[in-house]
Amino acid sequence: MSALILSVVAVFAPFAGVFISGLSGLLVCFSAYKLNKYGVAALIINLVNLFFLSPVFFIAALGESESILRSSGPDLATVFWSIVGIQFLAVIIFFATRIIRSLSNA
């Protein structure tokens, strides 16, 4: 449930929303083995937020290599794709748990 609340909050947070989506994705990863419907809803909201509702961060992450200005620290692309990777890891855990449970019930 907390992952869903964080993912809804992340939609309305201007720049920190991307990072809050990453935290929400981690919470979903920890609870994915329960096959909770709230976790699935949080993942969908997180992915929509990352790809469609945060286009400026997405474009900045993809176009940072073309920029003249360099900053110290990790690339935006690395940060963005690691946050997206957390979401996809949760999806993989959901599907693996569902397959394992359906095979054990058969």
Task: Explain what the structure shows.
It is a single chain. With 106 residues, the chain is mainly alpha-helical. 77% of the residues lie in helices and 0% in strands. It has five helices and no strands. The longest helix is centred in the C-terminal third of the chain and has 30 residues, at 76-105. The chain is elongated, with a radius of gyration of 16 Å. The model has no long low-confidence stretch (mean pLDDT 85).
Class inferred from helices and paired strands: mainly alpha
pLDDT < 50 runs, ≥5 residues: none
Query: Mean pLDDT, as a whole number?
Result: 85
Task: Outline the biggest β-sheet.
Answer: none
User: What is the H/E order?
Assistant: HHHHH
Basic shape: elongated
Task: Output the radius of gyration.
Answer: 16 Å
Count of separate DSSP helical elements: 5
Estimate what percentage of residues fall within beta strands: under 5%
Estimated helix fraction: over 70%
How far from one another are the termini?
Answer: 30 Å
Number of E strands: 0
